[in-house]
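Ticket #4471: structure output looks truncated?

Reporter: J.K.
Steps to reproduce: submitted the chain below (656 residues) through the standard prediction queue, then opened the result file.
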Amino acid sequence: MNHDYLAPDRASTSSPADCDANTSGAQTEPTATAPTSPAAADEPQTTSTPAPADGRTDKSTDGDGSAGQNLPSDDAGDDPEVPADESARDESDRSASNGDDRAVGDDFGTLSKVEVIYAGEIPRAATESDRGPDATDHPRQWARLKQVIVWEPGNVAQMVADVCPILSDSDAQIFVCNSKLVWVGQTGSINANGVSAVHVLTPQWLTLMLSALCTFLDVKTFEIIAVPVALIKAILAGPMWRFPALLRLVNIPALLPNGELIDRPGLHEASGIYYAPAPGLVIPAIPERPTLAQARAALALLMSLLVDALFADAAVDLAAALAAIITPLVRIAIDGCVPAFVFAAASSRIGKTELVQFISLILTGLRAKVQVPRSDVETEKRITAHVRAADDMIVFDNGTAPLGGESIEAARTSPRWTGRLFGTHDFFTGPLLATMYFTGNRVTYHVDMLGRVVVVNLKTDLEHVSERPLQRPDAQAWILAHRGELIAAALTVCRAYMAAGSPDLGLKPMRGFDRWSQVVRSALVWAGTADPLANLAELKSDADLETEAIGIALQELERVFPDEAHFTARAVFVALRNGLAASAVPGDPSPLADALKVFFDAEPVKLGPLKFGHKFAKLADRTVGGRHMKPVRRGNAGKEYKVFRPSQQPGTQERR
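Returned output as attached by the reporter:
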């Protein structure tokens, strides 16, 4: 396999261990020790105290997490006793420096592995080493240094200010994302390949974190208490957050708009991108300034994946397929929206869905779920669910219905998305960074979708296309084995174009997707492919025919059902079947039937009343030639429609 596009001197291998090592904010801090006099409180505390005169080691801050107890060292036998005069002197000094209402007495006999420091006032947080035999078994090893927090119920704001830095400096990896506290960790799902994901910080999980990081004492009794519920609520409320911002978590290296590559695990603070490599994924080193030759070598590797694809145009559709592969892999570099990608064919079982699955395997290592939304409302909710999950791909099987609709069209031109969640009345708002893919047979398009799609047309004359011999029959296994190299190849192509200064190639801009056109489309043409958008002229021609058909249908409906008459889809079906919608010119075929045949891509009367009604409803709200059809009310026979002119007021008709 040709790897000329890779840097010859180094290759990066990422693992979860590397990620933890680079993203960990926890550092071993010196364990605090109690001063022996009030004056000592003003001096900096050190990690050790002078050894007693008898030569024994002071265990008050032993590294095994037993501060405040005299535990034996690793090579010692029985626990040595502290001389009575030393104990009395220490207790006397602490009592004197603290005041009579906070004197040390029997209250502290119940405290285990805790030492509260007194120096005039009770400190709000004191360190406590807690490295017992079970600490290293904790899955995230948060409890490297425990903190003692004296809980004051009347001073919650200060308590939050004390605790938040402890969380920030720990390995808990808490961030602010979409105005919520989140944490980064493995999903725990057997279907997710052990990759890290972003999780909303729940009260239960925050309680677990704080219990591992802190020991809480009651301000009056100085007894150990559970993590205060009021503290949990105050932290999650958010006004005093001091956690870093997280924009996006990625499991593959991220190319930034300036050409910088995020390939070190952890948070890239300048961009808010957190790179958590997928376990076992090896990404070859990507040159900082790749050459045109390296870009073409990388492109050849990507093309080798598509050797069995049945493209209608070997050049244009191949370029469109390469754009579909590269776009989600460099999505962070595209500061703006990206078009949708449509894999269309004239027949089934030609491999359009499999090509989309190839992209998903490269991007995530998993096959994508293909969805078939039944309405625009359902489409909106599905898109919202994907945005909430921060998915990189959304795959819809469009069937044969015209591709478009309010939700799909808005999703391609909106950098942020707001939509309703399934099963609730709640709305969710978040950045829309997912790339959308559609598959379908004989796909037709709403006029407004033509400037929002890149189409990959597949075609074959073979009668039994599924039985043809394949050059790469084990494509899925091959992708998984070479996934890191394919990712590096896509990044190399775009980074090479940026390194060359992003030269202007004179391509006609794609309105609304200028940045995508510069990062992906221009990079492909610069590297030697055809223009991925060269087949859009043919799509616009087909759309013009559809627009003309809609205009004729609305005009004929206005003629057949004149004045203030409302009509149902069933009434139109019956009129066509019984010849009641004949042409105004005797002997000519029905213009309404011909127009609906173009719009439906089928003989209207052969569909049956039910399918006819579903397709007829798609005429609603389509304005052509100054006419548009709207549902005005629901009667006993179903929705009733009427064709309106601009001068008419649909709202008046709806109130009738």
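Triage note (M.O.): checked the attachment and the full token line is present. Confidence is low (pLDDT under 50) at residues 5-144, 649-656.
Status: closed, working as intended.
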